[in-house]
């Protein structure tokens, strides 16, 4: 037995040295700061086990609907919170990144300790985004202040802001835990960026990364800063969406050209003022008017909300050549004009405090229903009026 141990000792020593080196030299990007502002940020969370969306939301102290939005899962229904995501699924978690003690990090996640918990198991539950040592340090865990079942812990989570700018464009930064077998090249390819960009953001002196390293990855994003919105600011990462105007409007960041597109959400909530003033277009709609030399694209665009009122305006753009995406049978495309000023009621949807889940209806259908209703009412009055006058004359 002793001879066997002597033979295996060099291998055991090498393993211990490798393990200690891995533990000591894992890297993470830290952004110094000196202000009290915050920014939107993301966590890339590799699920350690099967979890409901609601369980993940509770784990990170965020709304389940925000998780769905960050991962472009739609629609949001009462059963969405109970949707099960399988282990090893990569989930984007939206968080707010604050300046705490001179560095950027999120301190809003609170964890309730269970009887069998250890610092290592709690760290595992957060997918390696935080180490046991970090949890121990932030919460002053020691011999006189041990983990206690039912107690609460602050979970310090990594995040960066970098002014939400990358290479001159709007960006949201995502904290990502390097997995075994990954390289900067494979990570850059996965998230649509470059090795040099990752090296610059993370201030790497060499291109090597190790499992457990936490990188800050720039995700291109859409901003409302140039959209002339009223008193509302929004940054939406590429490939996700957000709900605004009391969940009436869904704004998404289109991945192809990184442009913000806002449309009615269609959720079962009371929504008003979805139609642009003096037009038959609702927010997100557009139509095309052709001329001999160009085509004019007219859009109804979202402009923010104020005091419960959704704001919108018309936007005109002229092009020498149309994109070709408009079908010949498109009713908006075939219209002689996009501006019928008197054909539509003030609220084309006739939306009640409890609208149908199928809303919003297309404007043409809504107006036809309204016209049909008005027509039946008019015919009824025509039939009843002579009888009413005769009775008045007799009496």
From TrEMBL:
Keywords: Signal. The keyword Plastid does not apply. Residues 109-155, 174-217 form the LysM domain. This is LysM domain-containing protein. It holds the Pfam family LysM. Residues 1-26 form the signal peptide. CDD domains: LysM. The lineage of its organism: Eukaryota, Viridiplantae, Streptophyta, Embryophyta, Tracheophyta. InterPro entries: LysM (IPR018392), LysM_dom_sf (IPR036779). The keyword Signal applies.
């Amino acid at each position: 037995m002793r001879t066997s141990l002597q033979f295996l000792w060099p291998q055991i020593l090498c393993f211990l040295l490798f393990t200690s080196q891995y533990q000591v030299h894992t890297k993470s990007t830290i952004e110094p700061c000196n202000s009290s502002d915050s920014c939107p940020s993301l966590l890339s969370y590799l699920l350690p086990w099967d979890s409901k969306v609601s369980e993940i939301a509770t784990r990170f102290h965020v709304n389940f609907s925000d998780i769905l939005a960050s991962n472009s899962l739609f629609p949001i229904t009462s059963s969405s919170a109970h949707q099960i995501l399988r282990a090893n699924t990569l989930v984007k978690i939206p968080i707010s990144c604050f300046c705490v003690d001179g560095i950027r990090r999120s301190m809003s996640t609170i964890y309730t300790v269970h009887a069998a918990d250890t610092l290592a198991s709690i760290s595992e539950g957060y997918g390696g985004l935080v180490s046991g040592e970090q949890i121990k340090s932030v919460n002053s865990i020691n011999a006189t202040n041990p983990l206690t079942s039912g107690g609460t812990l602050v979970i310090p989570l990594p995040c960066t802001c970098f002014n939400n700018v990358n290479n001159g464009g709007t960006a949201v930064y995502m904290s990502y835990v390097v997995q075994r077998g990954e390289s900067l090249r494979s990570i850059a390819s996965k998230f649509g960026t470059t090795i040099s960009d990752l090296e610059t953001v993370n201030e790497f002196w060499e291109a090597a990364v190790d499992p457990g390293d936490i990188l800050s990855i720039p995700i291109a994003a859409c901003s409302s800063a140039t959209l002339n919105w009223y008193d509302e600011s929004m940054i939406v990462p590429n490939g996700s969406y957000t709900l605004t105007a009391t969940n009436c409007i869904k704004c998404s960041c289109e991945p192809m050209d990184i442009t913000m597109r806002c449309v009615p959400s269609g959720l079962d909530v009371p929504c008003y003022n979805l139609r642009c003033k003096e037009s038959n277009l609702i927010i997100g709609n557009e139509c095309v008017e052709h001329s001999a030399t160009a085509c004019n694209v007219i859009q109804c665009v979202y402009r923010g909300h104020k005091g419960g009122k959704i704001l919108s305006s018309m936007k005109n753009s002229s092009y020498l050549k149309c994109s070709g995406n408009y079908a010949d049978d498109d009713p908006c495309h075939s219209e002689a004009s996009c501006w019928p000023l008197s054909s539509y009621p003030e609220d084309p949807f006739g939306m009640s405090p409890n609208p149908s889940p199928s809303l919003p209806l297309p404007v043409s259908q809504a107006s036809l229903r309204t016209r049909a209703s008005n027509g039946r009412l008019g015919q009824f009055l025509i039939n009843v009026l002579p009888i009413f006058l005769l009775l008045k004359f007799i009496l």
